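Please predict the structure of the following assembly.
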Amino acid sequence: MSIQKPKGTQDLLPGEIEKWQYIESKARELCLRFNYREIRTPIFEHTELFKRGVGETTDIVEKEMYTFLDKGDRSISLRPEGTAGVVRSYVENKLYGEPDISKLYYIGPMFRYEQPQAGRYRQFHQFGIEAFGSVDPGLDAEVIALGFTFYKELGLKDVTVEINSVGNPAVREVYREHVQRFFAPVKDQLCKDCQSRYDRNPMRILDCKIDQKYCEGAPTILEHLDEECSAHFQAVQDHLQAMDIPFRINPRLVRGLDYYTHTAFEYKAAGIGAIDTIGGGGRYNGLVGQVGGSDQPGVGLGLGIERILLVLQAQGIDIPAAKPLDVYVIGLGDAAEKECVRLLQSLRLAGLAAEKDYLGRKIKAKMKSADRYHATYVAILGDDELARGEITVKTMATGEQETLPLSSFVQTLQSRIRS
RNA sequence: GCGGUCGUGGCGAAGUGGCUAACGCAUCGGAUUGUGGCUCCGACAUUCGAGGGUUCAAUUCCCUUCGAUCGCCCCA
């Protein structure tokens, strides 16, 4: 067997790639309206950045990173998510020194070493945004609104927004103890996964599908928020309501990255097998400081492109198809063939999508080829027509044919296609 | 990291321990010597993911491996 693509990666071929281009152009256009500007950071970074940024004890850093030593013995990792790199760049380029807050977006591949399944790949793609420099809860709401609007304008149906507050580190520490105390009496009866969650991340027990019966009456983090956290959370909700963004409060929502403070949110939709989260994000007020910058607050989101595609497919939503070919040029005879080469270039310079045959096929096969390309027109030039200074043009949709003067042929087609 | 299912031409798909590996789609050629979409005729897998084993004989049975797919953990 010849070499195959690495597990969990995919080739995006013509026919499929148009969907990606559409989604990406939609993202750029939306960011323009929300006043976010693109940033491109390296696909690999020093491993240390992700350890500090994403969190040493997260699954992502503990077992999912593509890490290697480069020839200078530096530990390098392929980025498993987008925020850490953007934060690093924000700090390194001193964007915090600019008069306005920084509103940035990115689109690109992320890498995690995991077992692939429906909606999960080792190389996957995210569209994400990050906004630095403000603690205004209105900015949290704007970020949530941008994601929701994106899904909506792409045509996704039944996308739900779930929000929660994960408080600040002090609140979370107190809450964590409450949860452990709550589950302590039944710890031995919890499922295997939850027994390990008990020490690592007790909040996750609340999300367990098996142990729901033990979760009844469990304390929620919302009950433990301090005054500042409560006020922030309430203000985010007020802003969302003002923007008519529907949302549901999910007090059990916990995200897998350590850096979140205050607002955490997820977008969910059915149709990707066992997975229902299609995007998520939150506020991260301590992260910039942890990465080594002046302690600027931030809030952001990341949306999975593959997951959007899967939901679109499940919901039977079509994405605008590629443009058909304008003209297919057929030359018959040596002199005509040569003239066609000139015509083809003229058509292309005139802004039309044009093609010819390169397989030396007969006219019948060339016509079939033109048909496969969904050509609007087929231009046929034989030696006799060339001698008369004419060219035959067939409109494929109707089958009608006409004879046009060769001298003005390119201009004629150009004006027809444009109108 | 763990578990289920699967792996036959470009694609979809039947099949069996032995006789030329069905069929459909697509493609190419012809009927139609300068014209597509319909119809008819013809062509198209020294080979059944890879490697090894059992056997007189393996695409079929066994082992290993790679991959796909779905699920668990976790996540986009």
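The mean pLDDT of chain A is 92. The domain at 17-168+226-314 of chain A is CATH 3.30.930.10 (BirA Bifunctional Protein; domain 2).
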